[in-house]
Amino acid sequence: MTKFNYTGNELEIFKFAKNWKNYYKKLISKHITKGNVIEVGAGIGEMTKLLESLSVDSEWMCIEPDLANASVIRQLVKSGQLGVNVRVFQDYAENFNGEGLSYK
């Protein structure tokens, strides 16, 4: 775990970027069809919520160094807003060794 603290405020604002998110989902949807997904810099899980459904029966690993942001994602999973296939690695991507993902 890191002691990194995210200082931006755009993640909360990004929740309301509906048109941009729909545009982005359309662009990336053909690239997320099967297999596990590793999302680096997952923030508060907004992109995870948007894209998770594209990779059915896959695991989704959210890599997020900020403890508060990682906690938000964990709460989304706990509340059912994200699937149980979503996991969180609270650290830097360079420290991720694949633990927690089964490879498909």
Report on this model:
With 104 residues, the protein is α/β, with parallel strands linked by helices. Helix content is 33%, strand content 12%. It contains four helices and three strands; from the N terminus they run H-H-E-H-E-H-E. It has helices at 10-14, 18-28, 46-51, 67-78; strands at 37-40, 60-63, 86-89. A three-stranded parallel sheet has the order 1-2-3, with helices on one face. Strand 1, helix 3 (46-51) and strand 2 (60-63) form a beta-alpha-beta unit. It is globular. The mean pLDDT is 89.
SS class:
alpha/beta
Q: Tell me the series of helices and strands, N- to C-terminal.
A: HHEHEHE
Share of residues in helices: 25-40%
> Which range does the strand content fall in?
5-15%
Q: Tally the beta strands.
A: 3
Multimerization status: single chain
Short description:
The chain is α/β, with parallel strands linked by helices. The protein is 33% helix and 12% strand.
